[in-house]
Amino acid sequence: xxxxxxxxxxxxxxxxxxxxxxxxxxxxxxxxxxxxxxxxxxxxxxxxxxxxxxxxxxxxxxxxxxxxxxxxxxxxxxxxxxxxxxxxxxxxxxxxxxxxxxxxxxxxxxxxxxxxxxxxxxxxxxxxxxxxxxxxxxxxxxxxxxxxxxxxxxxxxxxxxxxxxxxxxxxxxxxxxxxxxxxxxxxxxxxxxxxxxxxxxxxxxxxxxxxxxxxxxxxxxxxxxxxxxxxxxxxxxxxxxxxxxxxxxxxxxxxxxxxxxxxxxxxxxxxxxxxxxxxxxxxxxxxxxxxxxxxxxxxxxxxxxxxxxxxxxxxxxxxxxxxxxxxxxxxxxxxxxxxxxxxxxxxxxxxxxxxxxxxxxxxxxxxxxxxxxxxxxxxxxxxxxxxxxxxxxxxxxxxxxxxxxxxxxxxxxxxxxxxxxxxxxxxxxxxxxxxxxxxxxxxxxxxxxxxxxxxxxxxxxxxxxxxxxxxxxxxxxxxxxxxxxxxxxxxxxxxxxxxxxxxxxxxxxxxxxxxxxxxxxxxxxxxxxxxxxxxxxxxxxxxxxxxxxxxxxxxxxxxxxxxxxxxxxxxxxxxxxxxxxxxxxxxxxxxxxxxxxxxxxxxxxxxxxx
Length: 610
Known about the structure:
The protein is mainly α. It contains 24 helices and five strands.
């Protein structure tokens, strides 16, 4: 892939010396020294009372600076590890930083225990007595809530120490296994070894999709037993902690971390379950257009035949994809477009299609610099352009919050996914408006409804799988075969049995890295939350085009200093615990299904065949 206008490799050198350089160890050592000193100082925190407010203000200021540096270092090493998964030196430094996490956890623990027993009136007086505490009020209120989900202090500190070589070590093991994995695929008569992230299922030839799918499945199968061990022990460690905390169940903690209520989660999933049968009509029509009786797992993201008809270039290079994102963002909101242009020109994006990179895509932030970096493998598809928009949506979220206090730049995953999926929605709607033919509109709607299938069916399957897995894990470890049985049942339930009988992917749990992220339990429902929230919000944008970009920006700021429900209600007035908003979002999807069916038939009628 040659790109003349925008670099396909990101700039990391301006952030810090390379991890293999002679300067980098001193940076890590200086961070370790200062963090160790602050952790020791946290042991001596006085009672959180008005008389000691100034002491806490100074302490919080130091802690904020160190947390910003910790974020920078973790993001920096994460970028290098993703770009070159085989670099053992980077892995060593990641392990060093992971070993320092208990010190950070100790500071949070001491702070939260200091705040746990203070009364409401006393707490208000304490906060009002120091400017640094005032500006971090929401953060401190959250720390007080966290304290209710803490073990006794010494047990908390021990658990943090043990997690380095326990819970988090299993997550790192999965990262190493998946990074080293290679998929053997046939290209031009020769077997070629590729990273999992380079394997495509969005190609027009079904034989290629099928071969790629089974080649990838075969490769992942070779590490299934080890991945089952990792998954069992990650869940087992969490469940042991939840039992000690006497939590209601395995959802209490992820809901708390996403700052949302169980009522909101239930309202969302109930609305999805009540309405998503409409997607079966889309899946059936897509199968018909592809000449199939029913779709298999590897057909869901396949392009429609019209997308590859003569006269239409099926590929979009990186320069053209970047320009499309900039142009579309700017039409919606000039500041958003300016931001995207700045990100590409400043080389914040790593997009090169090469071996040795980790799978997937992500955005990570460098708070001391007010910058982000985006990682992906760009393979010249419309899906890649959507991924660019998605990750830049994350980056814009951080950009909007960059002048807030560091502790108010932290937003939960469900609201993080709102910004990213909203950016995708902006791109998709503009593409639909620009489409010149019925066939092109059908192709764009196919992509949009493919997203709906992903968020309302695929993600739902992950949620159902994890729900059932965690319940069953209470009785002991599950074998790889049993995990595959649970995944198959979850897929059939979530997809309403809408795929071919032999078209499922029972071993999906092996390949999906989200299940192995040790620091974020239930990395699934926030995606659906963010998708439906962004879909509903974007439908409101058409009703108030002048004011909406500013209100949207206000929402992004609110994500750092409000609960999820309060962030939405304070800016747009909707109660997410009720079904109204979720049904408004699903109305949008249902209209897209109807439009897809109508246009597909019209396109077929005008050409005699689709």
